[in-house]
Amino acid sequence: MLNPLEIISQTADFVVVNKPAGLSFHSETGPGLVVLAEQQLGTKLYPVHRLDKLTSGLLILARSSRAAAALTELFTTRQIAKFYLALSMQKPLKKQGWVKGDMQPARRGAWRLTTTQSQPAVTYFVSHGYQEWPFRAFLLRPFTGKTHQLRVALKSQAAAILGDTLYGGGAADRMYLHAFALAFTYKGESYQFTLLPDSGAQFAALLAAKLPETWYTPWDVSWPAAPKLSETITTARDE
Length: 239
Hints:
Helix content: 10-25%
Strand content: 25-35%
CATH topology: Pseudouridine synthase
Distance between the termini: 26 Å
């Protein structure tokens, strides 16, 4: 029997849940996250963004079609800041910076980054290494929402995510990508959520070693200005 989902926050218009790694967003052979959340809360819920099956962390579900439309608009106009944690056993080509490029389908359900930028996936990342641990930690901020965007971004930096065997990451007890924080304003009220990962031996080691202090409130990090809306197309799809 599945454990109940952790409910991070509830408002009149939306709920924020902790999606476990390995749980499908949509129902496959069994009920997916949306159905499980509806059963647990006893109400109809509306998706406004998604997380990959292998990704854990913060996910917003609307309580009405009207709220879903409003929240989707915030996502597509990049008024919801999203932040992810990832681990890699490989040293990246650069310690921080932009990853931009169009994405095209590749083999076995994978995607690849191209040098063109007609409708690019856009991500900015910073990273931090630890002397006592073999992994490098990444704080990623996607400015678009393309399928596998963050997985492909780190693969392009020669630092595939640990456990992401599709993109060349080493085998592990889970894929080490976690939707860590969300920050946005909705109906005049500011919301800021953070959720540390609660599964995976290497994430446990990361939390014991501690994140860089500024990462705990990632909306306060001095991020570079986002590209102009005319330069990118955003969707409601997340990692």
